[in-house]
Batch of 2 targets.
Target 1
Amino acid sequence: MNYRFKWGFIGLCSVLLFFFVYPYSVASANEPPRILFVYDSLNIAEKKENDVDAIQRLLTSSGAIVQTVETDKYIGGMLSNTDYDGVITLINWPQKELSEHFVKDRQAFSGKKLHIGPKLTADEQSLFSGKWRELSHRQFTLKDEQHFYSQTLGYQDEITVLEGSAGLSIGLLETQEIDYEEIPFGVLEKNNGFLPFFSQKGAVFLKSAELVNQWLGEHQSFSPILTIDGLNPMKDMSIASKFQQLLAKTNIPYIISTTSTNQNNTTAPFDIFTDILRSFESGTGIIFLEVPVVNNVNLNDNHALSQMLEQQISLFIEESIFPVGLSAYGYWNQDAQYQADGLELSKTVILRENPAIEKQYYRSRTKKSTIFKTAFFNIPFDYLEGVTWQRNGNTSDYEFPMPVTMSFSFPDSDKEIATVLKKIDQSPLFFYQIGKSHFEFDLQTQTQHIELLNSRRYLNGKLVNSLNNVTNKVIPETTFKGQFARLFNITNVVLIVVVVATMSVLAVLFFFGRRNYRSKYIQKKGDHK
């Protein structure tokens, strides 16, 4: 009896251990990494402030919870092993020194460490095997170690590199001088990473994004989603209609990122605007709502932003338009109120590059970014100019390590339409097929829940029409109608006649005047002889 009781007790303990300990372990393993991102300066003078923004957006797109601190505002003890899984140091302006408190805490920190830029301290260098070198006045070609792409970089005044490391090399720097050298660009060794410099453009960005994601432990791959941003009700809708028809012929799925309005939504121009949006949505397009443009900050507006966005979404739904995500500048995810009243409406967002510093308006600035089910890092197509791609047929096999939208500005003329379509057709990258895998698009207000699952739209759990039969809107010619329309038309004709007659008389007078003057001049010249 005691024998049975003993083994029964052991079995019960085993079951309890499974239910209480095992779920906790799985949850801990699935938690997003917590990263402290410390930079020395925005370096506005050299226009490098958006490098900070790009790293923030990159980390968010990779699924990390980011706490951003400028070194001057770092408080001793902030970086602890219990609060963070990793720390990133960005040297954005080498002339500025880092906080002594931060340097001390970083040395004691046992989690992951990534250093971007020069000025590694001795304890940072000791984390890597190999030899550190300081190079100056060099030009390199940055090559992908898997031969997907390469790019010749501009001259580097000063650069720190690591050679002979036992870790993993990310990218190769080839010298342009007679004495050929091949130097690792980035290095990962154990839990530590190093990048010699950063850029939000070109091959440097591609390599940096790959290294950051591997450093975080992410090993996914994504084709970019074609995105057209900047549509708004003030655009020329005849141009928009023509662009929609031509874009549909490419058979490429795409995102249309558009702003809307809360006013004048019962007018004919708004009806035409929503007709155009439905035509974009009827084929392979999906709609993302761009957050409103902020021109100033009123801290006593009783959360007007949330009300505004919910109203815009409701107006769209009334017109059978179903936005499935939000598009916003990166700095919106560094503001607590923009997060709560705006971004948290959607589990799927596009994070765009910040505007100029003077056009950034914060309400309640925060150091902590929020995370999303899917956060697309937006990169304009032109930011990859200068990259040479190894193509497999018409396109390269390269894929990004995080969700990416590749954007073009909405065209304003026939010439711009032709330019955008040509770039899309000649793109070296294969665009993502929306709805195939990876992503679920999801936007929810207090009363409405919109989802895009397997290329089907759902409103509050019910399938909505696919809108495949929406006809292209014919934009009517604008004519002036009103009480004085006839008078204005007659006045225009009279003015045109008067101007033409006056110009004709002046031309005749000029002709006769020139002839008379010339005859007098010739006569005087003959008398002089």
Target 2
Amino acid sequence: MEGKPEKLTIMDEPRLRMILCLLVLVLISVSGIVCVVCGLGIEDGNEAAAVVADEGYFKQLILEIYVDESGKALVTGYIEPDAVASLSFLNNSEYIYDNDTKQLYALTDELTDKSGADWTLRFSSCAYYTDYHTVFYLPDVIRLGRINCSPTMQYFVTVSNGSFVIDVQGYDVESPMTEIEYQEQLEQPEQPGRGDTTTNITIMQPLLLLIIVPIAVLTALLVLYFYFYFTKKRSAIGGAEEYKADREGRKGAGIEISSDMMRIMETLTERERGIVNALLKHNGEMTQADLRYETGIPKSSLTGILRNLERRNIINKKEWGRTNVIELSKWFLGGKGKK
């Protein structure tokens, strides 16, 4: 019996329709997911591009403003070239701008305004800055008042090196503005005929110290110098006079030269013999100064010759007060005879 192909019955049609519906639902779900993913990717890409664009923009202002008691200000620091025109006070001020280093140097009196004893300092710029930083230096002789600045900025006040320091900072600020109010210190009225005593004393004290201290030190050094000089001289004179008086009391006619002395003297140099002869002539002892005058030997040479004779035990050197006494040694005088 040959088999015949089966025909699709009516009972199979609902099953086929169900399968088709499932396929359609799967396709719709996959399409939706793909669209959502693609949309998120595009949005993230746009956000990333925006962030990159924002991060690529950077404008900086860093200035220091020094204000003196007359209201004049020195402005110096860093500012972008396209932001220089945003500083309106430069229109009536002397300034130099270096495009290479982006450094500004300006001298102006356009930042301050005075009314009686009240001063107002205004600093502003009609530009946008990602990094804004200004430091104001005001003299400490003023009385600091109210400080106002843009809402997105903050400030700090300190005192350093005789100045009030107002440090103003901000990030991503549009048209920054700073306003500082201060007052002059009231001066005390001068007494007739006396002037400002406090100021005079304050000025005179350092000057007096600069004059008096060196003079006092110099005077003390001179007193010490003359004290030691005259003390030493008096001691030397006293010692020499005492020695001379003692020598006069013991003075004889001299020392007779023995044969042993003669043999020793033959080994000496001419200057050494001159010293020994002078000592023999003066009873065997003399001051070093008298010996120098007696022999005519220079002081520098005499010291070396005496050291050599002392080393050979021909003479002895001893102190007498502030002077030296040179005498012939007992070894050299052995067997001596006196007239």
